[in-house]
């Protein structure tokens, strides 16, 4: 008896990405939002591709406790349209039982027949011989391990036990409210499907975070996936396969500069050749650069930014190396040179607060840019 | 370079050669009245140095005399290389030459180049001359070209001492950088550093503010939604607990049980109440029986006692009546004796009064006689007093007499005066003829002169009459008559014939006044209160009465005393008897009353016993026993019932509690249903509004807006810092640039204004403001005198800088101090001398007197002696 299902979580449908800068004529926010909705179809497709009849959503299907009507309706409709799949929705911390009570009421009332909301801490027989043990999140911030009830959940003898929970594991936060990584053993689970962590992570053979099917942060560096799980029978080791579902790639790149380097080329070397339109890229510049190099870096970043869905350059870690030649470019003597030297001293001062140093450094860079502009 | 001599030929009025020679080092003064060619000299010098010999321009033309001709100027200068004569001629045969010690070393363009080299100095150095033209108070002025040259000269000088001004201050690049910085900053901030309205900074601030407000509002709504959800959950739970069927049933059972227990308790209480009443009744019966027996026994006793008392009272009343009649007899006897004594007393009193009256009549007659005599005397004295008073009033008083005496003296004096003035005759009778001549007043006395104040007729016996006429001037003044008249009038007034009579009358008056005083004193002693008082005293004395047969007073008094004593005794006896009677009456009345009351008591006692009818003591006692037994039985029954009474109060409390539990449950249910409906409505509305979704979005937006604001604030800080750094650097550079000239100028300025300073214009390289006592005054607004002083001092300072650089330039001042007052001029002279040293200063002035104090080498412009 082989049982197959799709494990996904953290769809965060309805997320608006208002913190992503959007050009007045751009629509990156709309595209990102749309991609989240599109994850439903991708999951349904993955299920079909893997011969799975069930999709387990381990919490945070919706971004907020009260999604707007169109977000909710369209999500339910989309799930309903994937009629060959049964959707199992677990309340996560974003759509927790208390704050999202109206949401779950609407789902209970209006959901398509192939959608099952798991709002009770009680085993459900999801298929013949397969018990689903859900741990819905009751409050936004819980004070205990949300998977703890699994230990006490009984299932008929000989049933496959699949746990479904939402929360962090001890590995990350080291606190009481985290999920014990060995919960599968304590609760004799065949598989524990976890949600909350947006990156893909295998905690153990039987315990997995699938990550969000559509990424929304830079740290994971890859497109979102879902897990296609296959379990041969009770006690069998699950076979877990990743299926890429994400349409946008969020990534972060670092470049360490050193003086007298072609910074534009260094930046260019980091950039992907293709797929820029669906790529959100954050470049962290470190090391040291001279004033003209900084200006050149900023210019290069400005030049490539429109290619990308989103591009940002962080120079917090980039130190400025002031060279006599740079100051000479401002002026070899006289008042401009005096001003420049004052600012260099301030920027390199060890007594001034960092904010003042930053201001002085940027003022110097600006002066450099002015003088360069005047010269060219 | 120093100028040593200047020669003019064909320059304006100098159609013949004229020259200034002997120009030395230090200060040289050419002091001439107007129209003596000082300005001509100045212009000529300028033309030589600055006008090419080929020039025919306005200024060169202005040098030509009216008659025309070619102006020629020669200046001998001394430089380190020696002494040179520079010569130029314009218009006809224009010419420029340079000679050294008579030897031509350059001419034409080469000479111009030589001169330019001389002026320009070496290596593009400063212009060799510092000029101050007549009336030119401003630092700038002259033609554009001159100004430009002067600027160049200053720039060269300053730069040679310091550095290139542009290099110092950053020049155009600095301006551009600063302008760009200001422009960018102005997009964000106002000049005072506040966010500019409509600018991105302000916009970002506003947006953060607006988003914060929206976020707070949405957060509040979200919180309200969460609260509502929590409350609804609580309400639902509470309702479920209240409405659970087993809970409802249990509540009802408890209530029923409490009600039943309470009803039982109520019934028991009612039975107890009935038994209590039975006990009370039995107790009343027993008490009534006992009391009847008691009253029967008391009535018997009373009857007996009343009878005994009544009998005793009756006896006492009888005795009192007898005593009363005895007392009455005694009183009658006492009254008779008293009447007798009263009669005797009256008789004695009459006798005594009679005797007293007789004695009083005797005493009154004597007093009357004495008083009547005294009245008579007093009236006599009064009469005397009144007559004396009358006499004293009628005669003249002392004042009138004095006047009379004075008038009489005046008359005598008048007469004596008149007689002294009048002619006099003196008779010396022959023997026996004495008295033969008679005047108006009788015969004339022998040898006594007779004055004749008026016509007088002397009758001479036997001869006839001799009429003597004194003539004019004698006796006509009338003063004697007037005095006589005044005297007579005064005498008439007091009714006296003459003075003697008047005097007698005056003496009589004095005497009468004395008499009056005496009489008054007598009267006062006799009748101090007036005669009327005496008359009244007299009238008060009773009229004499004829008394006869009066008894002797002493005897009458004894008899009266005896009678009085007897009467007193009888009166006391009577009163004692009356009191005794009254006592007896009271005693009798008391006894009678006692008897009456005891009779009543007896009657009452008898009536009381009669009421009891035929009851006997035996059957009354039997009743008492019966009723006491009944009472004991009732008490026992009541106690028996009370033993197993339920606790009514706690049963009532239990019932009340059960009822209130039920009521509360009902009320709570009634409250919860609408509350749930309201909450559900609120939840539906808020969740329909997607408040959390919007909150999440707003929070993201706010975060982005805050980041944008931080970026802009940083940008503003960066631009502000840059602007400040640039301005500071430029100011510092400028200061540094102007340091040499400021240093030169400082001691000069302080000659005029201690602690004064000048600020310098970067473009013009000239001072643009004077700072005195901390106040900055632009040069243009200073007075004419101050402006020209500043201009002169600045030029001197420049010249000084030149001199220090080893390039001495003559300072030529053409009436440079027009507006300066005498005091300042002295100090300006000090400045000039201070600067003179190794320099050359040539002063052209028409103010001969004022400039005499300057000292220095005096110059003359004079014709060249051929």
TrEMBL record, chain A:
> Recorded GO terms, molecular function?
exonuclease activity
| Listed transmembrane segments | none
Alphabetical keyword list = Exonuclease, Hydrolase, Nuclease
Calcineurin-like phosphoesterase domain residues: 3-112
Which domain of life does the protein's organism represent?
Bacteria
One Pfam match: Metallophos
**Entry annotated with the keyword Ubl conjugation:** no
Q: What class of enzyme is it?
A: hydrolase
The EC number on file is 3.1.-.-
InterPro entries attached to this UniProt entry:
Calcineurin-like_PHP (IPR004843), DNA_Repair-Maintenance_Comp (IPR050535), Metallo-depent_PP-like (IPR029052), Mre11_N (IPR041796), UCP033093_metalloPase (IPR014577)
Its protein name is: DNA repair exonuclease
UniProtKB/TrEMBL annotation, chain B:
Q: Which organism is it from?
A: Sulfitobacter faviae
Where does the UniProt annotation place the signal sequence?
none
Q: What keywords sit in the KW lines? A: Coiled coil
Coiled-coil zones: 208-395, 553-615, 688-736
Q: What is this protein called?
A: Chromosome segregation protein SMC
Q: Which Gene3D superfamilies match?
A: P-loop containing nucleotide triphosphate hydrolases (3.40.50.300)
